Every structure is written in C-alpha cells, then in structure tokens.
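Protein folds are increasingly written down as discrete tokens. With that in mind, we are printing a sequence and the tokens encoding its fold.
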Amino acid sequence: MWVNLPRTPGAPTGEMFLAGCGIENFLLGNNWISPGWTYAWSAAHSYRGTTTGAQNLFSPAENKPGFVNMAANDVHLAGGSSAIGIGGSLALEVTNNALGLDLTPTQQYVDHQQTTARSASGAGSDVGAFQAVDADAAMRRTPNHDASWFKAK
C-alpha cells in the first residue's frame, strides 16, 4: 500500500513517485496507491523504464485508505476500507527464490515491538501492513468496490 497523506489534516500532499531515477522496471500486483502518483521523481526526469501491471493499482480519488485512527498512528484497516480484499496472488519469488525460503507474510506488527498472526496473504487478502480490524471484514475478504475502481496511469 502506497499512501501519500499530509502530516496536517487538510494540508496539501507532496509529490509521490515510485522511481528515483526514472529507469526502474516495475511488475505491479494488486495494490492501493494514493491518486496523483507518478513514476519518476520530477517532470525533468521522465520515466523510461518498463511497467507491467499498472492496471492492478487501485487509486481512489478521495485518497482515504480507511485507517482506524491516523491521529493515533493506528493504520490497521477499518471496516469499509477500500483496501479490504483487493490483495492479489503473491509473486512466485515469495516461495520459489534463491534463498530457498517461504517469505509468505504470516505475522503483522503490534505496537510496541510485538507481532500477531496475519490471517490471510495472497489473493483476496487485505493490502497493507495490517489486516482489517473489523471482524466481519476480516472474515469476508471481499472488496468494497467493483473492478472499475482499478485504473492504470
């Protein structure tokens, strides 16, 4: 999940870009991203890389990922979040990599320096570092939108 929110509520957001020098290549899966993002860090450095999967990015105009309480730094997904259930299949490299490790997310952070089991990963899971805290949403794992909300840049 790539979120660009101002530190002060109501203030404008800064520029959000994915690439530092404009020649990186991206293979993007289902993910939530703030609207107005660009590939390169400035107009002077246009993006010259290759991107596959940009149509898999969910970028709602209202830029509200549906966190429980940003002011209290609780970025768990609240019930009704547009990031619930939009997770895609994990990349093959998650389980088939040179290290011979299964890197499937199974834990998530709990403040302060603790972890708890992550209930789902991969297709139909929630995107972001934390699963939804709403028990019904956690059981459903169905998107809170239709496919028309996904759009390429």
